[in-house]
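Trying the structure run again after the queue cleared.
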Amino acid sequence: VSREAEIVLRADKLFLPGVGTAQAAMDQLRERELIDLIKACTQPVLGICLGMQLLGRRSEETRGVDLLNIIEQDVPKMTDFGLPLPHMGWNRVYPQAGNRLFQGIEDGAYFYFVHSYAMPVNPWTIAQCNYGEPFTAAVQKDNFFGVQFHPERSGAAGAQLLKNFLEM
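Done. C-alpha cells:
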C-alpha cells in the first residue's frame, strides 16, 4: 500500500480494492493524490468489487459520484426484480471464451458477490452474471481489469483468477 508515485509505478501489478461507498473511496483517492497516478499505470491493475466500479464513469450512489472514468460506463443501482439487495452470495459467472483472466476456470463457475450497484453489460465486459438481469461480472480495458465479485472469497475459481492475474 503506497501513494508514492515511484513505488506504485514500479510495482509489477496493482490491486484496487474497495469496501464501502464510491464517495468515500473517491475522496480517499483524491486526498492521497492517487487518481492521476492510477490512470497513468501501464502495468496490470485489478479492481475488486467497489474497486471495479471505481473504474467506471459515474456511480448513482447518493446524488451521483464521479469515478475514474477508465471504463466509459455508468454504475447504476441494481433493479431488485423482487430479489433481495444487496446481491449477496454465490452466483454463476460466464466469461468470454479465451480471456486470460478466466483461463482454467469453468464456464458458469460460482463466485461470491456482495453489491447493490452494478455496471451494465458494455463493450468492455469480459464476463457476465445474472441477478434479475445480466450485469458485468468482469471488465477489461487495456491493462485495467475489474471483477464485481470477491475472488478472495470464491474458493478454487477465485484462487485461479488471482493466479491468472498475478501471472500476467
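The beta strands are 14-16, 45-48, 58-59, 65-66, 87-95, 109-115, 125-130, 134-141, 144-147. Worth checking whether this holds up in the mutant runs.
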